[in-house]
Amino acid sequence: MTTPAPVLTVNGIEVIYNHVILVLKGVSLQLGEGQIAAILGGNGAGKTTTLRAISNLLKGERGEVTKGSIELRGERIENLTPADLVKRGVVQVMEGRHCFAHLTIEENLLTGAYTRKDKGEIAANLDKVYTYFPRLKTRRTSQAAYTSGGEQQMCAIGRALMANPSVVLLDEPSMGLAPQIVEEVFEIVKDLNQKEKVSFLIAEQNTNMALRYANYGYIMESGRIVMDGAADDLRNNEDVKEFYLGMGGGQRKSFRDVKSYKRRKRWLA
Ligand SMILES: Nc1ncnc2c1ncn2[C@@H]1O[C@H](COP(=O)(O)OP(=O)(O)OP(=O)(O)O)[C@@H](O)[C@H]1O
Ligand SMILES: [Mg+2]
User: What average pLDDT does the structure give for the chain?
Assistant: First the structure.
């Protein structure tokens, strides 16, 4: 198997909030063309900050990338606006879904096409979204506020797809959803990845689910990647099992408490 060329490359980025709070301390990662990569880790690890750094959405949070570089298919993108990034095919689905509550599902989806003009293409894209998310078609005239959490998550992903992206940054799709709905959402992501060749970078606390669907995983703690590897290798790794998959019986600790993690990382490489 050949490794796909990277569509996204993050090279040693540092992110500082409010000019003083250093949150990302040299994060490097890659997303292969046509792949699904997962950024895993607990609350406050820096997953959302990493996605926002890529999509250039840190400014509104008083954050900035102070070191390192970000490339889209080999071209530097740190200075592009979020709208330019959308035009280049990079869209982010925010944590917490953020559908417009007073708009219908269909109106929400159409807001995702704001960078596009061709009405015929937009209509075709909407149809495509409905084939992947039949639930959204059923609920197309419902106000988003009255739809379920799962439908709102689907709406948020569907809206991102209305920009016709090649790369989707997906922040905690499982948040607050029942396990079978999470599975339904991930199955659709897998379908979109395989049939539409959309690459996904997914931030998740749900390590188990994310590693079932991703090709590659990065484990993050306190603003650093502490381990990375092929998803199957991570799933079978004893430390990952103990600390992130809840199979060790003990209390979840920090990876940094494990003296051997660097050695294991070398084995995985
Ligand atoms: N706007 C902000 N200003 C200052 N600090 C922030 C800001 N946003 C996030 N942080 C801090 O940055 C760190 C990383 O936060 P981030 O939201 O990236 O983590 P996360 O891995 O996405 O966590 P979660 O799983 O809870 O969503 C945390 O310590 C957080 O408190
Ligand atoms: Mg987050």
Answer: 90
DSSP state of 205: S
Task: List the residue whose alpha carbon is closest to atom 16 of ligand 1.
Answer: 46
- Residues near 38 by Cβ (< 8 Å), separated by ≥ 6? 201, 202, 203, 204, 210, 211, 213, 214, 216, 217, 218, 231
Whether 205 and 182 have beta carbons less than 8 Å apart is answered as: no
Query: Residue 262: pLDDT above 50?
Result: no
- Domains along the chain? 1-88+167-264 (3.40.50.300), 90-164 (no CATH)
Q: Does residue 205's CB lie within 6 angstroms of at least one atom of ligand 1?
A: yes
Q: What ligand has the least distance to the C-alpha of 52? A: 1
- Read off the pLDDT of residues 38-90 as tens digits, 9 standing for 90 and up: 999 999 999 999 999 999 999 988 999 999 999 999 999 999 999 999 999 99
Radius of gyration of the chain (CA): 18
Distance, first Cα to last Cα, the chain: 16
Q: Is 17 in the pocket of ligand 1 (CB under 6 A)?
A: yes
Specify the residue with its C-alpha closest to ligand 1, atom 29.
44
Task: Give the Å distance between the CA of 174 and the centre of ligand 2.
Answer: 11
Is the CB of residue 41 below 6 angstroms from any atom belonging to ligand 1? Answer: yes
**167 and 7 in contact (C-beta within 8 Å)?**
yes
